[in-house]
Amino acid sequence: MYSEAYSAVIQGIEGRIIHAEADVSDGLPCFSLVGCLSSEVKEAKERVRVALKNSGFKIPPKKITINLSPANIRKDGTCYDFAIAAAILSALGIISQKLLRKAVLIGELSLDGKFKSVSGVLPMVYTAYENNISLCIVPKDNVKEAMFVKGITVIGVDNLQDAADILNSEELELRKYIVSTENEPLDYKESIQQIPISDFADIVGQLIACRGAEVAVSGMHNFLMIGPPGTGKTMIAKRIAGIMPELQIDECMEISKIYSVSGLLTKDMPVVMNRPYRAPHHTVTQAALAGGGRYPKPGEISLASGGVLFLDELAEFSRQTLEVLRQPLEDGYVNVVRLDGNYRYPAKCMLVAAMNPCRCGFFPNRRKCTCTPIQVKNYLDRISKPFLDRIDICTETVQLDFKEVYGVKYELEYKNRETSEQIRKRVLQAQKIQKERYKKETFKFNSYLSPSNIKKYCIMTSEAKEFLKDILEKMSFSARAYHKILKTSRTIADIEQKSLIEKEHIAEAVCYRSVNSKYWREGRNSYGT
Predict the structure, then answer these.
(1) Does 398 have pLDDT greater than 50?
(2) What is the DSSP string of 320-346?
(3) CATH class of 2-183
């Protein structure tokens, strides 16, 4: 007898419906599983066979053939166990096909017939919703994650016997099994463990770097901090996510899909509600940073999508590793091409980087710096010019004196420091202006302005034009640097709620652009190397 059940496969962070077709016929007893399978899927026949036996179902000695269709798509993971078992039981007449044709079944079986949680449930359930399937049955540990998809009925099961009882029920009887019929994603906000975010009020000094961080977040510009060790670069980076706007529902869905596929969602955190902050170590590989591998998975840049990717000790990263970020930073996504298909992962993150100006960290302070000119040059040359061109804003951090470190904290000035919430209000206002301005465009922020759009939206006063003209004549800025200055100026004007770019906005943007050229030029020219 023939029967089929539905499951889903993950391609990138999107899902696709899979048909688990079962045929039980006379012949030499065997259990065949076909359909372009990975090793863990091939092993499902042993898990399913033993789980059915230990759940009290008697399987006659017949020829059982299972096909996971479409057969030209590679199937990975252990989420097909449930659909395979249900298709077999239906082919044997133990389970009715009435509900089986209206449900997506997801779950891994243990040998005693109990269900284990699996990765990628969220995009699978969303795929079921897109294909007008109204019911999803998943392991109980995956229920909260699955319920994030609004408009689909979710049922959680513990074991195979309970699943068979549900599938044999009438539709009206399903109510006692349904976890929720009204899936409101925002209701999870109170129940999910929130990650505490540090406050900008904790930062002592470094006003220029803090201001640079505010401008960078307002226009979603990439941001680099350069300075001696121990001057607060990492502290600032950790607080940047706290001044970003709250995630919208569509952003939560996209980010949660990435984390679901990567197996990073838990019962305590079934969906991602906070802006991601990822800080990979400088020994990270290209595949781990950008995504890929033999069986592709999202990388750190995708896990940081919608939030912050922080690269500390930037010059210590492999140059080849950094170069793979160039295209994702421009395009906002990562394309991974493999023999069995193409995979696209989102990469809409804000890059924040920090580095020392030399190996010892104190260049150009020759009283403390022990590096030779050639060592300074070689250290700075680890960062390529094309990669630096992707960074709009660069600021310096300076060493603090004794009074700033120990005195100011306990004086009235500490109370006058701006908190993350105060900075965030200005960021929200600036981004609101940008979204209104670009409502007819395909982008939302100033950092994505193309050269043609710069002429359209970056309108300067006559005084600002003359000032910028003088700057470009005196400083060796490239055409790309000119565009970066205008985009940053547009963001600064938005923070101050000005419709036109003024001279002060140009001056501040030039300062942010000249810092990196200062170091990379100075590392070569000040010693004649």
Answers:
(1) yes
(2) HHHHTTHHHHHHSEEEEEETTEEEEEE
(3) alpha beta
